[in-house]
Amino acid sequence: MFRRFVVLITATLPFAVAADVRVVEEIAAKVNGEIVTRGELEKARKDNEQALRAEGVTGPRLAETLNQVNANALRDQIDQLLLVQKGKDLNIKVDAEINRELARIQVESKISDPEKFHDYIRENTGMTFEDYRDFLARKMLSQRVIGQEVSYRVANFPEVELRKYYDEHPTEFVRKEQVFLSQILLSTEGKTPAQAATAETKAKDLVARARKGEKFSDLVRDNSDDPETAKNGGQLPPYQRGMLVPQIENIVFKEKRGYITDPIKVPQGFLILKIEERFEAGQASFEEVKNDIQERLAAPKMEPKIREYLTRLREEAFLQIKDGYVDSGAAPGKDTRWKDVAQLKPQTTTKEEVASRVHRHKKILFIPIPGTSKKTAPAATPATPGTAPPPAPATPTAEPAAAPIKQ
Question: For a Cys-Cys bond, which of 29, 51, 131, 220 suits 127, CB 3.0-4.6 Å?
């Protein structure tokens, strides 16, 4: 199950260095002032081999595939740096997507305890939770840039072709029953009975306002006591049957899209849920999946377009590549040699300095477990949407919440 989200890792990772040894890390390339080191390339090669072996690739086929992949190691590092830099220039935000992916993994792992989930990530990826989140950020930012800057240039397929694919591949579009929710949480933790009664009155007022047509995401932003989901309009990850406590599941799986619940009493306070979308189990309709089919059919045409785009980014970038290293995606005619070979030797850095740059992360709140906290909800308890656990030193701020699975 976990292998589904383990990919060939080309992200920049820190290097463990003994405290009494100062090892100099060789710089292989500079991309608009950001560096690629020899250690990063070696780490990428090892990760590539590990991923291929995990997929069952062995013998001559493994050697051949590794030769092909490793020949592009520097190219891939430069590609990602250019895409991430472009994403930042375009002000693309991916925090919500990262949180949804981590929520999905956490739900599938059935681990609600934050520390145990961190250990699970480390055991299955070889990365700390912070590094894995950073890896996801770079990966998703790269994908968003490609989707925004390249995908629209690929011609759309006529609907008759989309319909033909749908009819010929029915098993690809069978899904489980699931519901998408947004939440407002009014906390009563640490409050007196009188304050709790005031919170309940406020919850009832918010329900009335939402049902009269006030924008739910605005009510979330202005009133919810869950800071993580409040930043994203209260959005929660999708839930399937069996993931939520019966008190909530019996409501949200029988009502229609747009339904707003009465205030629900949970351990943390009062919860208001809105059903953003609900899908029945079975065959997805053509209208629901035609955009996905469009992407599938366009994929073979995307690769050359992506490489054209990356070549343009190289043409616009300031690149320097050290002798002995090859960018297999180099822009034709662009001079990427070190301009002053005499200055090459000082163009090195220590692994400690590399690690310090990599780890300039903000602290985050751990991805919230709806309705649970380490103090109040053991792993075996079904999920109740609600607040996140206390802050843990980790990565950029989390938004959507994850839920433990009923066991």
Answer: 131
